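RECORD TYPE: protein structure
NAME: Putative lipid carrier protein YhbT
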Amino acid sequence: MIRFFSTLPAKTLPRLPEAPPARIAAFVLNRLAPRLWQDEDFAWLAGRAIRIALVEPAIGITLGHDGRHFVPMQQAADVTLRAGWQDFLAMIRQEADPDTLFFQRRLQIDGDTELGLHLKNWLDATDWDALRSVLPGPAAHWLSPRA
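PREDICTED:
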């Protein structure tokens, strides 16, 4: 019985529609953008689609930028950034940097290499402390580096 419930997310999440989580992610990014990326114009993302995907469960979201806002995209991604959820969490906690994960093959970039490297470098340059400072206590604590 426990095994059934432990595999349930891996079986059901990939079958759910991508649009709702992509809309939520775009909304959250648009709210955070002025605090996290004040000097970023996202011109490198205009007219492009990026996909952020988990290895397991095999789910992801596809986003773009219309020059003013992040937007969910329905088109095929120009680049996909794929990693395990633990690796994305380690990046946010600043316990691992994207370059290290990339060279360890735990962070994969598929598609447009130049766009993928720009995306990876953008993630690396993000001030994750600023993100944690605007989140509610439990979320900020969960995303904080472990001692």
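COMMENT: The chain has one domain: 2-143.
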